[in-house]
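User: Hi! I have a protein structure encoded as tokens and I'd like to know what sequence might fold into it. I'm fairly new to this, so please keep things simple.
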């Protein structure tokens, strides 16, 4: 459920009116913030905390206290004079063990990296542009990102970003991570807010519940906790025959790598068996390229796939265009098995009638990137969410719209549209979508519904990219699609720990 700032404020005020002391909520939020920072950056470095006068600043101070105990070198920056702090924020400042407030920035030594910024200036209750003192502090944070490769964690919302509309006012903080408290906020999921919000993390506070009639129940943020129960543990008597046999159909015309990446994604995603099915002209090169765990089978006609013993089909990676188009189209519309539709298979649908998928005898998952989406659904309504929902309803399929904030929409209006929380800009490279296609097909083949597989697959693929960067010393520039499946295991384990 997504709440707007007014709804959050109303829920909090009702708790306080009922006699709840706000301090335990602040302590819980601050501890969650510290945990999130440590999870992404487990080795302590330098922490610079920007504190505003309100309770957002108090959350930052509680988090800073925990991080300091963990070995972080901590500096404070107040955007206002200490006598202007709210009483509870003042109390948290004193509990911070009288940390010296440095009026000027001290550049951390290289051995004290990473350099982390906590944006505790303003919360969701702020309206309008940044006022003096706060604008200067926000500018300093943004400058540190450029000049010292600092990573900014915004608390609840980046300061200067409107919590309802997602509009960024002048000087608004550009966050690498936004740690939103209790519930995702409407403005954080608006398309235009992505560059200010960055990676979205939910700090859960179960005591702050939506009031009756509140919230956008048609949307949700996909997190580890929201996926609880989907990734069930395998039974002891599980064998490869019960984990699904996945067919990857593609890899033609010199685009073998796409099919191989999809196959590896399926294998790392838990498929019992994976077979690449390719036109006979491509068989030899694919058989040479594929890893030993992947089978390769050639066909003269893709119509032969109808009689082959597969549980789930993934059609499109490296498929290209050719004389086989009518055969592929017939599979997409008529085959009785679930199908993940990607790449050239999506383009084939776009050149024909996407609405024909409504009558498909089994679930379909469409995985377009923005360009493919434009071809499939040219009557785009404006937002990514509206486009994904429109295509889902038109085709009777689940739609996974890839991009900086992957959106998953169901053909059913009773199932909420999901916004994936994981990933980073390093995923903007060829082949990442192919690994996702394979991963989703494996999850479906293992018995997970198409919608749940899309949500889980998106989260795992994005989380794997995070592990590749934070744990395996890759960078956003160096990340390759082939790096992701290597980290699926870590991502799946994160689900078991309800990690971020």
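Assistant: Happy to help. Inverse folding works backwards from shape to sequence: for each of the 500 positions I chose a residue that suits the local structure. Here it is:
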């Amino acid at each position: 459920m997504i709440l707007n700032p007014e709804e959050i404020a109303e829920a909090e005020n009702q708790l306080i009116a009922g006699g709840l002391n706000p301090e335990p909520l602040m302590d819980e939020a601050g501890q969650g913030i510290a945990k999130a920072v440590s999870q992404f950056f487990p080795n302590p470095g330098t922490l610079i905390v920007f504190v505003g006068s309100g309770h957002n600043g108090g959350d930052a101070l509680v988090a800073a206290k925990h991080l300091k105990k963990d070995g972080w070198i901590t500096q404070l920056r107040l955007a206002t004079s200490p006598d202007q702090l709210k009483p509870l924020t003042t109390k948290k400042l004193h509990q911070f063990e009288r940390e010296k407030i440095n009026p000027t920035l001290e550049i951390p030594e290289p051995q004290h990296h990473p350099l982390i910024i906590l944006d505790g200036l303003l919360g969701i209750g702020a309206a309008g542009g940044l006022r003096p003192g706060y604008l200067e502090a926000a500018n300093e944070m943004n400058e540190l990102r450029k000049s010292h490769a600092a990573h900014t964690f915004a608390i609840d919302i980046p300061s200067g970003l409107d919590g309802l509309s997602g509009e960024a006012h002048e000087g608004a903080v550009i966050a690498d991570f936004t740690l939103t408290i209790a519930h995702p906020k409407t403005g954080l999921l608006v398309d235009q807010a992505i560059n200010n919000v960055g990676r979205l993390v939910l700090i859960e506070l179960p005591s702050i519940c939506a009031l009756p009639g509140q919230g956008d129940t048609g949307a949700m943020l996909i997190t580890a906790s929201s996926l609880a129960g989907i990734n069930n543990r395998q039974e002891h008597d599980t064998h490869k025959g019960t984990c699904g046999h996945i067919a990857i159909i593609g890899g033609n015309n010199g685009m073998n790598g796409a099919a191989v990446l999809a196959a590896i994604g399926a294998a790392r995603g838990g498929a019992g068996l994976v077979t690449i099915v390719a036109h006979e002209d491509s068989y030899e090169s694919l058989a040479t390229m594929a890893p030993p765990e992947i089978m390769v089978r050639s066909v003269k006609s893709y119509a032969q796939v109808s009689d082959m013993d597969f549980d789930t089909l993934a059609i499109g990676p490296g498929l290209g265009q050719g004389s086989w188009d009518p055969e592929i189209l017939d599979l997409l519309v008529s085959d009785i098995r679930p199908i993940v539709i990607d790449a050239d298979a999506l383009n084939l649908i776009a050149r024909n009638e996407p609405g024909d998928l409504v009558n498909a005898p089994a679930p379909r998952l469409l995985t377009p990137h923005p360009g493919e989406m434009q071809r499939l659904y040219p009557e785009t309504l404006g937002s990514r969410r509206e486009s994904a929902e429109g295509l889902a309803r038109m085709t009777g399929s689940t739609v996974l719209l890839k991009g900086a904030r992957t959106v998953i929409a169901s053909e059913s209006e009773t199932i909420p549209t999901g916004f994936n929380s994981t990933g980073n800009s390093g995923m903007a490279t060829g082949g990442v979508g192919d690994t996702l296609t394979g991963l989703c097909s494996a999850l479906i083949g293992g018995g997970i519904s198409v919608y749940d597989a899309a949500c889980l697959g998106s989260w795992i693929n994005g989380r794997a990219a995070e592990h590749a960067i934070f744990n395996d010393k890759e960078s956003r520039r160096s990340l390759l699609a082939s790096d992701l499946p290597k980290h699926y295991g870590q991502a799946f384990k994160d689900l078991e720990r309800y990690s971020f």
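A useful reference point when you look it over: Residues 101-105 have pLDDT under 50 and may be disordered. Feel free to ask if any position seems puzzling.
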